[in-house]
Amino acid sequence: MTTDTVIITDFSPEYKQAFKQLNEEWISKYFVMEEADYKALDNPESYILNKGGYIIMALYNNEPVGTCALIKMDDEKYDFELAKMAVSPNIQGKGIGKKLMQAVVDKAKSKGAKWLYLESNTILTPAITLYEKTGFVKVERAATPYERCNIQMELELK
């Protein structure tokens, strides 16, 4: 398989279950689902899309295998939080995460964003490596709704 066969598309209601399932899969593998997860995953329209955010999906053979969201932030510096990035374990290592990352960065730029923010955990080595390769750098910020968060990063869009 090459990543050329992967289609990146905008979220639509038919992908709601896949958006939730892809994220629950990795979160439950490494951590525990938290209240903030359920808010976003159970209600992507009201929690993300209706507030000016975006969700993209990666499709392989017309099946959703990856996703990533941009959550609009009410922040002096950051325009969007990059969140809920997931790629099915059955298909990881094929460059799909990289395609998703490029697509969300391009989407943020097209919306005039200057800064992206994300929260993660350093045990997710492939994710942290992807963020760093994209240009994200570690920052110190205050509160986070996630107990699992032990690293916060930002990216200045140019």
TrEMBL record:
Please state every residue range assigned to the domain named N-acetyltransferase. 6-158
Highest taxon listed in the record's lineage: Bacteria
Entry annotated with the keyword Acyltransferase:
yes
Could you state a single Gene Ontology molecular function term? acyltransferase activity, transferring groups other than amino-acyl groups
Q: Does the keyword Coiled coil apply?
A: no
Tell me which UniProt keywords the record has, alphabetically: Acyltransferase, Transferase
* Protein's name according to its UniProt entry: GNAT family N-acetyltransferase
Its lineage opens with: Bacteria, Pseudomonadati, Bacteroidota, Flavobacteriia, Flavobacteriales
